[in-house]
Amino acid sequence: MPFSSAVASCPFKIGHTPLTAYQVRIGNLTHELLVKEERCNEFGSVKDRVAWYILSKTIEKMGPVKSVVDASSGNYGNALACICQRMGIGATIVSSASISAHNAAQIKAAGARLVIAEPKPGETANAARMRLAGEIAAQEGSVFLDQYSNPLNPAAHQNWTAPELFADGPFDAVFMTSSSGGTSRGFADYLKAHPRPTQLCLVEPESSCAFLDAPSGCTDKLKIPAFGSQRRSSFAGMKPDPGMIRMDEATTLAAFTLLHERQLSKVGLSSTGVILGALEWLARQDKPARVACICADGDERYLDEIQSRYIPSVGQEPYESALQRLAPVIDGIKCLGPVNADAKAAAH
Ligand SMILES: Cc1ncc(COP(=O)(O)O)c(C=O)c1O
Questions:
Q1: Nearest CA owner, ligand 1 atom 2
Q2: DSSP characters for 314-327?
Q3: Which atom of ligand 1 sits closest to the CA of residue 224?
Q4: Distance CA 162, CA 292 (A)
Q5: Is-above-0.85 flag for pTM?
Q6: If you average pLDDT over residues 88-109, what whole number do you get?
C-alpha cells in the first residue's frame, strides 16, 4: 500500500481530542468555556499533530528517510522522537536548557539524540536551536524538518486542529498561546478560508514578541517553556492582527495550582495561561459568550518541577499573592464534562 500522509490514515492516536466544557460565572453573566484537551494525543501534546503532519508529508514527497533533525522547545521533540522510534527513523532533537525534565527524559527514552543549543551573544534560545539544527543536518546529511519555518506546521492546524475544533462551534473567541506561531497561524489561515465571527486571541507573557512587539522589549527570559516566544515568528504577518492578551507567569502558576488542587483540570502551564487569558476576556463581555481554549499539553510535564523550578523562577511572594487574588475567580468555574462525540465515546 502506498504511504499516506492523510490525517485520517494517521497510524497513531492523534487528533479527535476531547473538548471539556466549563461554566464560568463572572458578575451576573454565565459563560461557556471549552478546553480542547490536546494532552490526550498519543504522545501527550498538540505537537503530535505537527510532528506527524510534517514527517508524513516529507516522506510522501521525498520517499523513505533514514534520519531527521529538528529544533524544539520540548513537546514537538518528544512527539517526533516517539513517532520516529515507531517508524524506525533516527531522530536528533535540538532544544534549549529550558526543556522540561519530562520532555528531555521522554526524548532519550525513545532512543533519539538530544542536543542542547547554547545561544551566541544576542541570540534568542529559539534562534540558537534553529541554527544548530540546520548545522547538524548539513554536517550529517539528515533531513532538517524545520518546524519553525516550515509551512506544513501551520498547515497541520489549518487542516486538522481547526476544522476539528470548529465542528463543535460556534465560538465567540478562540484562545491559544503564540509560542512559535504554528498553531495561531494555522487557525488564522483557517478563519480566513472559512470566515466566521470568531475572534482569534493569543495569550502570552510580557516578554514574548512572537507576533507583536513586547511591552518589556523582549528582554526578560521566558519562565514557562513555549508560553510565548522571544523570537518573531516566521509565521507572523497574518491579517487581521490577532487579539493579544498579556498574562504574567506568577498568576499562571497560581492558577495551575488552584485548578489542580480543585481537580478542575489536568492541563499544563501554557494552557493554564491560555485559560486565564480567556477568563480575562470574558470578564470584559457584556453578554454571555462561548469560547474555546487550545490547551497544548498536560500537567504531567510540569508537576515534578513546580516547586524546584517554576515557583522560584517567578518568586514565592508574587506566586502567593496571585493565589489569594485568583481563589474567588477559580471558585466561579464549574466543570460540566466532555461535549464532543469523540470525548463521550472515549469516556465509556
Ligand atoms: C507548551 C506548549 N504550548 C503551546 C505550543 C504551541 O506552539 P506553536 O503554536 O508554536 O506550535 C507548544 C509547542 O511546542 C508547546 O510546547
A1: 226
A2: H-HHHHHHHHHHHH
A3: 1
A4: 11
A5: yes
A6: 97
Q: Could you tell me if 21 and 79 lie in one domain? A: no
Domain carrying residue 131 = 47-144
Question: Can you state the angle between helices 101-109 and 75-87, rounded to 10 degrees?
Answer: 10
Give the number of other Cβ atoms within 10 Å of residue 137's Cβ: 20
C-alpha of residue 35 to centroid of ligand 1, in Å: 15
How many angstroms is it from 287 CA to the middle of ligand 1?
Answer: 31
Summarize pLDDT for 121-153 with one digit per residue, the tens: 989 899 999 999 999 999 999 999 999 999 999
Residues 238 and 274 in one domain: yes
DSSP 119-172: PPTT--HHHHHHHHHHHHHHHH--EE--TTT-THHHHHIIIIIHHHHHTT---S
Which atom number of ligand 1 is nearest to the Cα of residue 73? Answer: 14
The residue contributing the CA closest to ligand 1 atom 11 is 182
Give the C-alpha distances (Å, rounded to integers) separating 333 from 26, 203, 277, 284: 9, 19, 14, 16
Looking at the structure of the chain, the number of domains it has is: 2
Residue 1 Cα to ligand 1 midpoint, Å, equals 33
What's the N-to-C CA distance of the chain in angstroms? 33
Q: Whose CA is closest to 49, among 77, 75, 83, 15?
A: 15
In residues, how long is the chain?
348
Please say whether the beta carbons of 261 and 276 come within 8 A.
no
Asked if omega into 288 is within 30° of 0 (cis), the reply is no
**Residue 207 counted as domain residue:** yes
C-alpha cell at 99: 526543556
- Same-domain status, 288 and 206: yes
